[in-house]
Design goal:
By secondary structure, the chain is mainly beta. The chain folds into two domains: 1-33; 47-209, Beta Barrel (YmcC-like fold). Helix content is 14%, strand content 45%. It has one helix spanning 3-32; strands at 47-52, 58-66, 69-73, 82-85, 91-95, 128-137, 140-158, 161-174, 177-186, 191-197, 203-209. The longest helix is centred in the first third of the chain and has 30 residues, at 3-32.
Length: 211
């Protein structure tokens, strides 16, 4: 290779470098722009009213934060009970109206059983995880497998307004029983804003107050 050819080859490489740097920068910007939801900062007094397509409304309220657990009231099966939820929104302790531990979950069927990770932070599109855990149903302890996928982010309309939300698919199985449901989680609301499913009635957010 002559001196002129070597110089031309060097110039070609030099010309390519800015283009390569630009492509890398654009790729990094696209990756950085991927929607992400972190565990929200909750405050005592946060409330959510859920309107169900069948049955009465559910008025959830955060009444305390104790040892990094959210203490909530208003769950449909026992509105005055105090449910202690971890950061995965799994109820790990349940007290009745008198403040005594319940011997049954009274509808919060995953109460007291480890391994329930309803949400896996941070939420990002296409993220998947699996729950394999015991749960109480009709006074029987059953083994459940739930495959969860964050399908993406989209706008969803509710009685409380329109929100950008993470669309989450859950596919349940316990023995021969199966169920599919879709939920939408909003970082603005700090809760689910809508649910549809093939076994249970759907619901949507009617109103909320968060600090």
């Amino acid at each position: 290779m002559g001196l002129r050819s070597a110089r031309e080859e060097t110039l070609r490489h030099v010309a390519i470098l800015p283009i390569t740097a630009l492509l890398i920068s654009l790729s990094l910007r696209v990756a950085a722009a991927e929607p992400t939801a972190e565990f929200p900062s909750y405050a005592v007094g946060d409330t959510w009213t859920i309107e169900r397509s069948a049955g009465p409304n559910t008025d959830l309220k955060l009444v305390a934060i104790e040892n990094n657990l959210m203490v909530m009231t208003g769950f449909q099966q026992c509105p005055q009970c105090r449910a202690y939820l971890d950061r995965n929104l799994a109820p790990i302790k349940l007290l009745d109206e008198a403040g005594k531990p319940l011997s049954s979950a009274r509808g919060l069927f995953s109460w007291g059983y480890p391994g329930w990770k309803y949400l896996d932070w941070p939420l990002t599109p296409n993220k998947t995880w699996r729950i394999e855990a015991d749960g109480l149903f009709n006074n029987q302890v059953l083994r459940y497998t739930i495959d969860i996928t964050v399908l993406g982010v989209e706008e969803v309309e509710t009685k409380a307004g329109t929100f950008e939300a993470f669309k989450i698919s859950r596919k349940w199985q316990s023995g021969k029983w199966q169920m599919s449901e879709t939920l939408w989680w909003s970082s603005t609301v700090k809760w689910y804003v809508k649910r549809t499913g093939d076994k249970e009635a759907g619901w949507e957010l009617k109103s909320f107050t968060v600090k």
